[in-house]
Design a protein that fits this description.
The structure is a homodimer of 471-residue chains.
Chain A: H1 4-14, E1 19-20, H2 23-28, E2 43-45, H3 50-63, E3 67-70, E4 87-90, E5 97-101, E6 106-109, H4 115-124, H5 141-147, H6 154-157, E7 164-170, E8 176-180, H7 192-196, E9 205-212, E10 219-227, H8 230-242, E11 249-254, H9 255-265, E12 275-283, H10 285-301, E13 306-309, H11 313-324, H12 326-331, E14 336-339, H13 349-362, E15 366-372, E16 377-384, H14 389-408, H15 427-446
Parallel strand pairs in A: 2-4, 3-4
Antiparallel strand pairs in A: 1-2, 5-6, 6-9, 7-8, 7-9, 10-12, 10-13, 11-12, 11-15, 14-16, 15-16
Helix pairs in contact in A: 1-3, 8-10, 8-13, 13-14
Chain lengths: 471, 471
């Protein structure tokens, strides 16, 4: 609960219209893109500028009130659920592109800016901002920075981290921190910029970001390869990389995903295939043509049943639609969809998909897998029903084993979705006791009273690891 | 001073041959690549593996003995001078390439590995590791990671940070930390990997690194453009970037550098030019030819006096030799050479070079400037004589003003050399009081007894800023 005194102070900072605690507003901000998680905040605030964010944090700091800052809440890790109540700060009013600097190829933006709108804007200027999380039509740049969002182009172009070169952020005590700048090289002290990217709102509230832009590729080509044997698809992924080709996109869909997507999008996908690869290459026309030819030949060499190269942009769009609609299609199957994020070295894709299938069968749950094969970032997706407690428990047990399997294969519990609430109990599996201790120390340095997004990333208890008995 | 007891414990961990405290060894490890800094350690140790590093740190932790870990000591910021005595740990015995993984395009190496040797090895395998600090013939990968080394290819390919995807490191208490992995995406908690890169040995001792490799460019072309007007050269830099071309290399040398390099290397450089740009583009042949043609036309449009494109690899090598010999040539002029690292947004190159010249004249010191124009990373280099105290003070005063000017132009005090001892008094100018406080908190979390490279990055006092009076 927030005292009347604190609410008055917040209203004085933000204006009375921008501090809300009516039931509708509280409910609307009690959940995010993650299923089965909900917790009411005590108030919701809407700052207009950095100064208001700073003053708001000073009020919250004085009264020791927790804060969850958020954009559109599209995250899938419970990252913006206000589990300890307090204030939710919505960044949507701070949504401006402050500058696109054509001499330095940088953009300076506010955190509430919509990702897709930003990408479109820079494309119209003949520039390119590669991070393309699937949520980009709704998500904000600030949210992308908080979660270090990836996307389909991560393989070749990297993720949000690779494009954030400067930040302005407000610390827990209201102080304003500025890091980096329009600089391609800066080694003045510890890299606080990269530390804040992916820190999930637990270290500071990002109020401004300077982003690196790059020249866009001149040409793009799209192809699809279909396999009756999952291993053939996985070997293709490895062989492409081994051939020193880094495609712009290299996506995989397994058989359950293929069937669901075909039901949904009526694309005439072959329902008897074990796996489909969707591949895009971009760059200079000659290089793209050569790469696509070589990839085609690798696919055939690994016994692809069918290989099709899109002849027109429309055909290419149709192919990519298949992949981009995977989540939506899966979400239609059952009332609850849980999209996970286990990631492995790309050479371990086949092993991981087989492990996922084995684990799903063992626990009698439905899990379809698709994802970014080229960077090993898989999205095993369970379709279930939150009202069926027994099934939900089986799904949870399955995902625990999936995380365990990913780590056993040299992977991680999350490639691009973040830790948040959902994966906090598993973080120590990846980073170890020493890693947890250092992360707790960093959190303590930035936020000694644990006011910024409390309850995220650091779980009260680490899950006991599943005992693997392969008899 | 180290107690006999501690020495015996170290000898028990490392073997008696690998703990040295004879005067020769101590003197040899009392300095690094930075002029005018020297401080004797109490002992020098040479671990063979991670376990020995861990055990050594446990001994030092118990006795509260400071540790400076180092590779070849080529850094230019006093980063490995043992200013508080204690133990210097030389990583040269841990110099193996543990694995090059052709399926995942990663290499796993030990920190004492020579940079050039590593680059050559991966090139022989048809792969590419871009970071190319000028010291690479001598430097180690561990040193490059500690300092986040850049180099000539930073503009297009990024710096060491962009290629380190996993680390094993030993913490101050001897615990072993493992971060990242063979993963192109990993958002499990705070990014400790990127935090350790560039942390200058103040947070942990790096014992193993997993590095990302990329396919090499297929073709390269080199050109030179000469200007009687510095602004023409600077505008050329901006225009190239504005034309959406990111060259592999885009270097600048000012007139004092040109004359010195020509004296040294007898390349027949035009001594009356105010600036030379050295430009390389790499990639697919057609794209390279097209870019070089457009760059040539931009150079001529900005009144370049002469533009020459190397017709053969030998000619290209000769051009690049001019740039690569700049430091060596300058170092012949006077007994002491101080190479600095002020960095600005690339659109501010001309302004910054003019500021440097103005400041050098004001303080009556000789400063030549060359560097990585494409990423704004300049190396103003003072030639002086350490025995002339008055002149050295004037040089120091000049560099203080140069740092101030860089920051005023939106730049930083160091682009790729690190903070170390030399720039510690200026760090707060760049990162502010809030940044210093967060960095101190991180240091405290990792190294509560201040044993790892003490005295570096955090100065006892921040320099008062020069008052700029422009009347």
């Amino acid at each position: 609960m927030i005292s009347e005194q604190a609410k008055q102070e917040l209203a004085a900072v933000l204006g009375p219209d921008y501090v809300k605690d009516d039931p509708q507003t509280l409910v609307t901000h009690s959940y995010d893109g993650t299923p089965m998680l909900q917790s009411l905040p005590d108030a919701v605030v809407y700052p207009e500028n950095t100064e208001q964010v700073s003053q708001t944090l000073k009020v919250l700091h004085k009264h020791r009130i927790p804060l969850v800052s958020r954009g559109s809440g599209t995250n899938l890790c419970g990252g913006t659920v206000p589990v300890q109540g307090g204030v939710v700060m919505v960044m949507h009013r701070m949504n401006r592109i402050l500058e696109v600097d054509l001499e330095n190829l940088t953009a300076t933006v506010q955190p509430g800016l919509n990702t897709k709108q930003f990408i479109t804007h820079v494309e119209e200027l003949g520039l390119f901002y590669p991070p393309d999380p699937s949520s980009m039509a709704v998500s904000t740049i600030g949210g992308n920075i908080a979660e270090c969002s990836g996307g389909l182009r991560g393989l070749k172009y990297g993720t949000t981290k690779d494009y954030v070169i400067g930040l302005e952020a407000v610390l827990a005590n209201g102080d304003i921190l500025r890091t980096g700048g329009k600089l391609m090289k800066d080694v003045a002290g510890y890299d606080l910029t990269k530390l804040l990217v992916g820190s999930e709102g637990t270290l500071a509230v990002i109020t401004e970001a300077t982003l690196k832009l790059i020249p866009p590729p001149k040409f793009k080509k799209t192809m699809i390869a279909m396999y009756k044997d999952l291993h053939g698809a996985a070997r293709t992924v490895s062989k492409i990389i081994e051939a020193r080709i880094i495609p712009a996109t290299l996506e995989i869909m397994d058989n359950p995903t293929i069937r669901v997507v075909d039901d949904f999008a009526k694309l005439g996908l072959p329902r008897d295939m074990e796996a489909i690869l969707l591949i895009e290459q971009d760059g200079d026309p000659a290089a793209v043509e050569r790469d696509i030819e070589r990839i085609e030949s690798i696919c055939r060499g690994e016994s692809a049943d069918r290989v099709e190269v899109a002849a027109t942009p429309e055909e290419a769009l149709k192919l990519m639609t298949a992949r981009r609609s995977a989540f939506t299609a899966l979400a239609r199957l059952r009332p609850t969809t849980i999209l996970e994020d286990a990631t492995v070295p790309r050479s371990k894709i086949a092993e991981m998909v087989l492990e996922i299938n084995r684990i799903a069968a063992k626990h009698n749950v439905q899990i379809a897998t698709f994802g970014h094969a080229g960077d090993g970032n898989l999205h095993p997706t369970a379709t279930t029903d939150a009202r069926d407690q027994d099934e939900v428990h089986r799904v949870e047990a399955a995902f625990e084993e999936i995380f365990e399997a990913a780590i056993r294969l040299g992977g991680t519990i999350t490639g691009e979705h973040g830790v948040g609430l959902v994966k906090a109990p598993f973080l120590e599996w990846k980073v170890g006791a020493a890693g947890m201790e250092m992360m707790r120390g960093i959190k303590q340095a930035f936020d000694p009273h644990n006011l910024l997004n409390p309850g995220k990333m650091f779980a009260k208890a680490t899950r006991k690891r599943v005992v693997i008995d392969r008899g």
